[in-house]
Design goal:
about 280 residues, alpha/beta, Rossmann fold, seven-stranded parallel beta sheet
C-alpha cells in the first residue's frame, strides 16, 4: 500500500490520479490551493476514508508544502510517491503576455514545483524509513521539449523544470533510493481548453489571423484532445512501481511522435554543422 502525495489534485491529471490511487487500494494525500474542491473525492470513495487525506497546498507558499508533508507523515508515517503536478497555463505571444503574468506562471509552474521537489527529496531521505527512498514524478509536458506558438512562458517553465529535474536526478546518492521521472504528456482531455487556461490580449503587431499563434488559438478552441486522462494516469500509476523507471516518459502517441521528430531534427542539425566545431581548440 503506497502513500501518494499529489499536488494539483482538484482537476485534470491530479484528480484522475487520486481516484486511481484510491481505487487500487493505496493511500492518497490529495492537495489543492482550495481544499474544499476535493470534497468530491471523499464523497465518491467513502469506503476509503481512512486512506484519503485532503489538504490545502499552494505551491507558491513554502510553509504549505512543509505542512503537507508533515501531515502525511503524522497520519500515514511516510510518503512513497510525490506527483508534482500543480500548474497553470497562460497563453499569448511573448510580446502579448505582460511580464508580471510571465513571472506568475514561473512562480507556480517552476518555483512551486522546485519547492515541492526540494521537500520531497529531503523527506524521502530523512523522514521515510531508512532506505525506503521514494519516487518523484515531475509533471512536465510535450511543451517541455518542444515550443509552440502562443505558449512561450508555459513552455519556458516546463523546459526549466526538465533541466532542474535532470540535474537533480544526477545529484542524488544512489543509496537514498530516490528515483525521478519527468512525465511529458501530449494533448489529453483535461481542462486546458475548457476555461482553466487564458489568453492574453493580442499585441497589435500579431493581430492577423494567419499568424502562428492565432492559428493555434483557433485550433485549440476546436480541439478534441485524443488522449484519455484516466488512461494516461493509469500508465503513470504503473510507472511509479518500476524498479528502474526512465528519466523521461513521453505520454501519449502525440508526445512520442513529437519527441522522435525533435530528436531527429536536432541530430540533423548536429550532423550538418558538426564540421564548424573542428579546429576550435586552443593552440598548444
Amino acid at each position: 500500500m503506497a502513500v501518494w502525495l499529489i499536488t494539483g489534485a482538484s482537476t485534470g491529471f491530479g484528480h484522475e490520479l487520486a481516484k486511481i490511487v484510491l481505487e487500487r487500494g493505496d493511500i492518497a494525500v490529495a492537495t489543492a490551493r482550495r481544499p474544499e474542491v476535493l470534497s468530491s473525492l471523499a464523497a465518491k470513495y467513502p469506503q476509503a476514508a481512512d486512506r484519503l487525506l485532503t489538504l490545502k497546498l499552494d505551491v507558491t507558499e513554502e510553509q504549505d508544502i512543509v505542512d503537507a508533508f508533515a501531515a502525511a507523515k503524522a497520519k500515514f508515517g511516510r510518503v512513497d510517491v510525490v506527483a508534482n503536478n500543480a500548474g497553470f497555463l497562460t497563453m499569448g505571444e511573448l510580446e502579448s503576455v505582460p511580464a508580471a503574468d510571465g513571472r506568475a506562471i514561473f512562480e507556480t509552474n517552476f518555483w512551486g514545483a522546485t519547492r515541492v521537489s526540494r521537500e520531497a527529496v529531503r523527506f524521502f531521505r530523512e523522514d521515510n524509513p531508512a532506505g525506503a527512498g521514494g519516487r518523484l514524478l515531475q509533471f512536465s509536458s510535450i511543451l517541455g521539449f518542444q515550443g509552440w506558438p502562443g505558449v512561450a512562458y508555459y513552455a519556458a517553465t516546463k523546459f526549466a523544470l526538465e533541466g532542474l529535474s535532470e540535474t537533480l536526478a544526477s545529484e542524488l546518492d544512489p543509496a537514498w533510493n530516490i528515483k525521478v521521472t519527468i512525465v511529458e504528456p501530449g494533448p489529453f482531455a483535461t481542462n486546458v481548453n475548457k476555461g482553466d487556461s487564458q489568453w492574453a490580449p493580442t499585441h497589435p503587431a500579431y493581430d492577423r489571423p494567419e499568424l502562428p499563434a492565432a492559428v493555434f488559438k483557433k485550433d485549440l478552441a476546436q480541439l478534441i484532445p485524443p488522449g484519455d486522462a484516466r488512461k494516461g494516469m493509469e500508465a503513470v500509476y504503473k510507472l511509479a512501481s518500476l524498479e528502474q523507471p526512465p528519466l523521461r516518459f513521453p505520454l501519449g502517441k502525440e508526445a512520442v511522435a513529437a519527441a522522435r521528430a525533435k530528436m531527429s531534427a536536432f541530430l540533423a542539425d548536429v550532423d550538418k554543422y558538426e564540421s564548424w566545431s573542428e579546429g576550435l581548440e586552443r593552440d598548444a
